[in-house]
């Protein structure tokens, strides 16, 4: 191009980054330079067919590591810059556009397709939406929509996000009416043109993933909001009333369209869950990463830099990628906070318990507070070396971002995550055929936290990872269902299994029954008025319960339990096969009734015990025992113990476990340091000596007579209490009164409490 003869693969980045040009992407000079750039046709390309190169996910520093041209990039032509920006902004835009839906806080997107469909127009998207000399009404509406997205009514979207929504809406219009010059095609098919001509074919052919289709419908909803807004609808050609009425009624229905897609594609989402669970990172791969060549090389290069070695661009890239990946591994953070971290953020970082914590204000979930980047001592030491020895060799003087490219500029937004993927790929860690990304580390941490950590620890990790609880469950936690299914089938088999049947019939002939000793219990009385069809000589107790249920419902009178069925008359072998006497007799005298043994109390699990230690940590450390009321209130705040808070017996188990951990009361001071109590003891001894009947026999004790004034004060304070309050309430009432508090200190708690109990007993007797 004019004024520059350098050979590059990415004209756009060459013009915007570095010291040579430094142009703004939207400037007129930038557009002219891109337009006038001509392809390189040197000797090495004579026998090569020029074609668009496949977009890759590697940055310029990786190309330099491999010995490529200095400015070699991933894209093949400059006009693909905008499309690349769309892909990078896809995740961020999905949350912005779906902020009012329940999945708005999810980082993970189903959309991995390109958001710019092929439109039969040689003009690229950015030029199309910024071109002022519009030719058709459709283009006027789309240009107006692109402008509207920057307004506060649409959320003041970024350029990449605006371009995505406008491009998706352009593709929908082309699908409804290719080459059309208006937007009236949206109202065809009773307003269902987009569904019938684009959504349904995509679902049938699976041409795009469900998340991508939902993203297109979100753009469609925003476009309808723009068209139906009278303040902004003047951008395009006037619409007739019938068309405007259809579009106005269609706007609130788009939310239902998205819900329909979500419901009809659950199998795809479930399959994705299964695939992600099967390919989830594990601890062995983490160990493998820490012993891999990129990891070891990164540590070695940083050590050499601390000793004064001047690094090459390749070594700088390895050291930088090592530190970036460490943040993702140690903190499970998104790449955004690492990309946006500034030197001032690191200088303002504070240290607690040997861990330095840096707060980054700008990140994807900024509304939840600053992002938290924690550095263990090892990582903190390497960060100091990077900032003091390595970064100054490459960073531009006016650059305030911590992590920079080999050109000294900050990473483009959304691109630093590629360094993590590239680092893991070189370490030999991949997820099947896909490259590992930062989100995979987040899934590993979220899943392990869900399985092994307490709820309180889970909240800490979730806050550092900066996502909501709903997002964690839907997008990150990938618990294997194998264990759950195996345990569930055993539970099902146990609860539906029939209980073992017990022999409830005893065939015994009275004539054959042996005589009993005279001192034994009398023979049980027979039931009178036996039915005529009873076998002669057959015992009443030998009848089947089905034959006479009404009689069996009433017990036989005056039957000793041990001789109710004459077990002594049975052979020894038959006696062994029968149940115990009491249960056997009950089963005979009640129709169809089976003994249900009480369920043994279930012990606390190890997970519940760990949760108890966390919830009652303060009580355990201070040696303070808890009560049922306090325990029930605290249990409701956690998911592990919340299910137990509804059962008083289970809460009592928790209280007993807490009090067991607390142990016996701990003395606050040693016995030698206790003050000598003289006043109350002297008064008590004096009263004992002077009171009547003080000469008591050995083992007896003279009753302490209360001062009438003290007793009156107590009665007056508690006269409005219908029953004896709890000890906590009594202590509070005594402490709140100066005179009663003095009595409490003088008499002691036990004497005051006994006095109150006697006082209430007297009230009950009087009433």
Distance between the termini: 109 Å
**How many DSSP-defined strands?**
5
Supply Rg: 41 Å
Main sheet makeup: 3 strands, antiparallel
Query: Looking across the biggest beta sheet, what order are the strands in?
Result: 1-2-3
Q: What fraction, in percent, of the residue positions are helical? A: 40-55%
Number of helices: 36
The low-confidence runs, each spanning 5 or more residues with pLDDT under 50, are 43-122, 505-598, 690-700
Strand content: under 5%
Please provide a brief summary of the model.
With 767 residues, the protein is mostly helical. It is built from 36 helices and 5 strands. The chain has a 3-stranded antiparallel beta sheet. A two-stranded antiparallel sheet has the order 4-5.
Descriptive account of the structure:
- This protein starts with 10 loop residues before the first helix and ends with a helix.
- The longest helix has 19 residues, at 313-331.
- The chain is mainly α and 767 residues long.
- The chain is built from 36 helices and 5 strands.
- Helix 4 (81-97) packs across helix 7 (159-176).
- InterPro entries: DNA_brk_join_enz (IPR011010), Integrase-like_cat_sf (IPR013762).
Secondary structure topology:
Blueprint: H1 11-16, H2 28-36, H3 60-65, H4 81-97, H5 125-130, H6 137-148, H7 159-176, H8 193-205, H9 210-227, H10 241-250, H11 254-264, H12 266-278, H13 283-290, H14 293-306, H15 313-331, H16 335-340, H17 343-347, E1 350-352, E2 355-360, E3 371-375, H18 377-390, H19 417-426, E4 430-431, E5 434-435, H20 438-452, H21 455-465, H22 469-476, H23 481-496, H24 549-552, H25 572-577, H26 581-589, H27 606-615, H28 617-622, H29 628-635, H30 639-642, H31 648-662, H32 679-690, H33 708-717, H34 727-735, H35 738-747, H36 749-766
Antiparallel strand pairs: 1-2, 2-3, 4-5
């Amino acid at each position: 191009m004019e004024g520059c003869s350098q050979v590059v693969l990415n004209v756009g980045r060459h013009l915007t980054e570095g010291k040579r040009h430094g142009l703004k992407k939207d400037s007129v000079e930038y557009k002219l330079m891109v337009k006038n750039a001509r392809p390189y046709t040197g000797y090495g390309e004579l026998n090569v067919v020029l074609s668009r190169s496949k977009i890759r996910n590697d940055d310029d520093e990786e190309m330099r590591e491999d010995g490529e041209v200095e400015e070699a990039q991933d894209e093949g032509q400059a006009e693909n810059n905008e499309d690349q920006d769309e892909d990078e902004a896809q995740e961020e835009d999905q949350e912005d556009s779906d902020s009012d839906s329940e999945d708005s806080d999810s980082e993970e997107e189903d959309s991995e397709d390109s958001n710019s469909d092929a439109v039969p127009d040689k003009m690229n998207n950015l030029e199309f939406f910024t071109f002022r000399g519009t030719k058709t009404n459709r283009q006027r509406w789309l240009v107006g929509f692109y402008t509207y997205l920057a307004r506060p009514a649409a959320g003041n979207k970024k350029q990449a996000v605006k371009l995505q929504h406008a491009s998706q809406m352009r593709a929908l219009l082309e699908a409804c009416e290719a080459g059309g010059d208006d937007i009236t095609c949206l109202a065809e098919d009773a307003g269902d043109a987009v569904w019938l001509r684009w959504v349904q074919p995509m679902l049938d052919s699976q041409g795009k993933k469900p998340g991508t289709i939902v993203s297109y419908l979100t753009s469609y909803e925003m476009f309808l909001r723009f068209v139906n807004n009278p303040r902004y609808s003047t951008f395009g050609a006037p619409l007739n009333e019938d068309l405007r009425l259809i579009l106005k009624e269609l706007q609130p229905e788009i939310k239902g369209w998205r819900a329909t897609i979500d419901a009809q594609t659950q199998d795809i989402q479930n399959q994705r869950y299964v695939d992600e669970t099967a390919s989830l990172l594990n601890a062995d791969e983490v160990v493998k990463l820490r012993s891999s060549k990129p990891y070891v090389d990164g540590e070695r290069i940083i050590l050499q830099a601390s000793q004064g070695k001047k690094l090459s661009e390749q070594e700088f890239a390895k050291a930088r990628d090592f530190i970036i990946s460490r943040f993702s591994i140690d903190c499970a953070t998104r790449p955004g906070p690492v990309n946006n971290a500034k030197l001032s953020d690191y200088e303002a970082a504070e240290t607690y318990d040997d861990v330095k914590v840096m707060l980054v204000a700008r990140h994807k979930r900024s509304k939840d507070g600053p992002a938290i980047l924690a550095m263990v001592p090892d990582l903190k030491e390497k960060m100091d070396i990077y900032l003091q020895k390595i970064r100054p060799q490459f960073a531009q003087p006016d650059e305030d971002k911590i992590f920079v490219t080999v050109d000294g500029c900050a990473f483009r937004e959304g691109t630093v995550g590629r360094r993590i993927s590239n680092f893991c790929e070189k370490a030999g860690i991949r997820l099947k055929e896909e490259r590992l990304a930062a989100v995979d580390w987040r899934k590993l941490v979220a899943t392990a936290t869900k399985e092994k950590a307490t709820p309180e620890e889970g909240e800490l990790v979730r806050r550092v990872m900066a996502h909501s609880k709903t997002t964690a469950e839907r997008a990150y936690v990938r618990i294997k269902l194998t264990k759950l299914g195996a345990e569930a089938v055993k539970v099902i088999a146990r609860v539906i299994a029939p209980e073992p049947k017990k022999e409830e019939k005893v065939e015994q002939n009275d004539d054959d029954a042996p005589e009993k000793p005279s001192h034994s219990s009398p023979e049980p009385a027979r039931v009178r008025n036996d039915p005529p069809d009873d076998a002669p000589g057959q015992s009443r107790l030998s009848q089947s319960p089905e034959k006479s249920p009404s009689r069996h419902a009433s017990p036989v009178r005056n039957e000793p339990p041990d001789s109710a069925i004459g077990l002594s008359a049975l052979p020894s072998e038959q006696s062994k096969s029968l149940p115990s006497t009491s249960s056997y007799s009950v089963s005979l005298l009640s129709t169809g009734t089976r003994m249900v043994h009480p369920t043994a109390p279930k012990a606390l699990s190890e997970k519940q015990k760990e949760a108890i230690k966390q919830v009652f940590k303060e009580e355990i450390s201070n040696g303070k025992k808890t009560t049922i009321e306090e325990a029930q209130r605290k249990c409701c705040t956690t998911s592990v113990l919340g299910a137990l808070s509804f059962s008083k017996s289970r809460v009592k188990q928790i209280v007993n476990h807490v009090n067991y951990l607390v142990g016996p009361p701990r003395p606050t001071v040693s016995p030698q340091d206790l003050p000598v109590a003289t006043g109350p003891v002297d008064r008590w001894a004096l009263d004992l000596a002077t009171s009547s009947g003080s000469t008591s026999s050995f083992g007896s004790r003279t009753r302490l007579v209360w001062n009438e004034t003290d007793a009156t004060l107590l009665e007056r304070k508690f006269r409005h209490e219908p029953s004896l309050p709890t000890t906590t309430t009594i202590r509070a009432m005594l402490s709140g009164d100066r005179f009663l508090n003095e009595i409490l200190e003088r008499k002691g708690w036990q004497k005051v409490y006994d006095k109150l109990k006697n006082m209430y007993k007297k009230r009950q007797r009087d009433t």
